[in-house]
Write a structure and sequence with these properties.
This protein has 269 residues and is α/β, with parallel strands linked by helices. It has nine helices and 13 strands. The protein is globular and about 55 Å long.
């Protein structure tokens, strides 16, 4: 049996990730905020915990959730679209304080390429560029990244994913039929859920810590071209784009990921 891992956030990505890691021999503790999901986690071999993050405190038996684990995977989206005034950074500080008192030696933080600012030149971005966004979501992620990276009590790897998708949850389905969509010429930066799971598993296998890694599929067609073609093939209503304003965007370069892990992407957008 390999080491025990705690995954906070066993949802759309975290649940299949937990199952994949169990198949590799890891023992998994997994958290959810839904009482109804506890039985599903348990029936799939995951030791289930009801854990909720709050700006004022952690809710749930978090000490037992962390007990005995050498690694924690923090996989919780900020949730600022639904709650734009939420202080996600404050929520994570309580978790970091709990991690400091636990057996955790390694932290894998699932972040986002939203920490990088879009621009009119569609800059090619590598990990050499310091996160520089002005968005509320991105600034909170930057603050969390820094808090984890500067903590001497454990090793931290930051994994910044592009837009996550799979066959059932695809951004084209959200954009279908919408009008006045901004930045039609901006490059896309997407990554399939299966690639996300495999990349995380490889980082764990190789004990890759104290590094920041960007992860998007290495093809970057334009937003308008890609989503229009996808909707056409899927028989969905075509999205309509606003060409009046100059497009802003970025190209995320995943070369460090490919070089360090010898990784080959499995699923094209």
């Amino acid at each position: 049996m390999k080491d025990q891992i705690s995954i906070i956030g066993c949802g759309w990505l975290g649940f299949p990730l937990a199952k994949a890691l169990i198949n590799e021999g890891f023992s998994i503790k997994g958290s959810t905020t839904s009482m109804d999901k506890l039985s599903t986690l348990k029936s799939n071999g995951i030791d289930p915990f009801l854990i909720e993050l709050d700006e004022d405190k952690l809710i749930g038996n978090y000490s037992k959730f962390l007990q005995g684990s050498t690694t924690i995977i923090i996989n919780i989206p900020p949730g600022l679209r639904k709650s734009p005034n939420k202080n996600h950074s404050a929520e994570l500080i309580h978790l970091i304080n709990a991690i400091e008192k636990s057996s955790i030696k390694n932290v894998l933080f699932i972040s986002s390429i939203s920490v990088y600012q879009d621009d009119f030149n569609f800059s090619k971005i590598t990990e050499d560029l310091l996160p520089n966004t002005n968005s509320n979501n991105g600034k909170q992620l930057i603050e969390i990244e820094e808090s984890l990276r500067e903590n001497a009590k454990f090793k931290t790897t930051i994994l910044r994913f592009g837009g996550l998708f799979d066959d059932k949850r695809h951004p084209a389905k959200y954009l279908s039929g919408k009008t006045n969509i901004a930045n039609p010429e901006a490059p896309i930066n997407l990554i399939h859920k299966q690639d996300c799971i495999e990349i995380i598993a490889m980082l764990l296998r190789k004990n890759t810590w104290n590094i920041s890694i960007n992860a998007t599929y290495p093809a970057h067609p334009t937003k308008k071209g890609y989503y229009s073609e996808y909707c056409l093939k899927a028989d969905l209503a075509l999205p309509k784009f606003n060409k009046a304003k100059k497009s802003k965007g970025k190209i995320i370069d995943s070369s460090i990921l490919v070089q360090n892990l010898k990784y080959t992407f499995k699923q094209a957008p």
